[in-house]
Design goal:
There is one protein chain. This protein has about 375 residues and is an alpha/beta fold. The protein folds into 2 domains: about 180 residues, Rossmann fold (3-Layer(aba) Sandwich), CATH 3.40.50; about 170 residues, 3-Layer(aba) Sandwich (Rossmann fold). The protein has 15 helices and 15 strands. The strands form 2 sheets. The chain has an 8-stranded mixed sheet with strand order 3-2-1-4-5-6-14-15, with helices on both faces. Helix 8 links the parallel strand 8 and strand 9.
Amino acid sequence: MLIGVPKEIKVHEYRIGLTPTSVRELVTHGHQVMVQRDAAATIGLDNDMYEAAGAEIVDTAEEIFERAEMIVKVKEPQPVETAMLREDQILFTYLHLAPDTVQTQGLIDSKCVAIAYETVTDNFGGLPLLAPMSEVAGRMSIQAGAHCLEVHQGGRGQLLGGVPGVPAAKVVVIGGGVVGANAARMAMGLEAWVTVIDKNLHRLAELDQQFGSMLQTIYSTYDSIEKEVMDADLVVGAVLVPGAGAPKLVTADMVKKMKPGSVIVDVAIDQGGCTETSRATTHADPTYVVDDVVHYCVANMPGAVARTSTFALNNATLPFTLAIADKGYALAMAEDPHLKDGLNVYKGHITYEAVALAQDLPWITPDQALGMS
């Protein structure tokens, strides 16, 4: 199979879909790989490294989209990229379609086969291709939040961990999954007071057992969220409903009641955000203020640590990329129902229920799309 890797064009996005190591693995399996020139130069992966791994270096994204049978990316295709996709071409990347009607329609119109990293599953009910970026984003959320608490960033001038004789900041993490657990771990490492809110009692018990008295766990209700958010210095939104829009658990009224200069870091912004006052921002202009509360809502947080993120992502995606390339998408998904869960759009049809429900559009099952039933 001929696989193409274009340079990411989202604002301040420096990750890349395949590392030289991944390219070499694909070439060893008998595949061809094209990589756009200087696509990963910013993170120290230069053209010579890709050529040594067996890749062909091409000058333009247009050539990659025109020739490749499968496009491997990191972030969702931007409109100019969606317009270059063609019928039956495979797109393997993060999509986060639920809140993005423009991208969804573009993929439908292209009649490509769009497989989303974030909805591929595993035997444990997890999301293995989302997990590494969730780990990065969870850890980064505390770095970003601590920075935003500084006065010159609009914050209330509070050191997250305090100092002897001065109380530490209170951090509230909404959601106890991969993002939430990593955010809590980092916040506790900086000696903040940390609370995790979740509706899954089993998950709360796991976190309690893991972190003990260092962490407070609370069952999620409207009342508990309101109470904790009002008292928080930093709120981290770490809510995920796989493939669907994030529920708005923090209302605009709650934000009005927060302390002036407090901070919200909404990691769920890729799926629309879990705060009513959240809107997507970029690394170029990451924050804004609503009711004296600083909002950090960067939709591609791991892009700021692109080298770490790229290698972590490739560790997770490479087995699936190889399966698609070795077997073709139809056989690969027939043999692996977890990969099939990643199918979001197939030749003009939505194939993921949560996306269809979020946008009030018709859909068919992956089995129907692939003729398996």
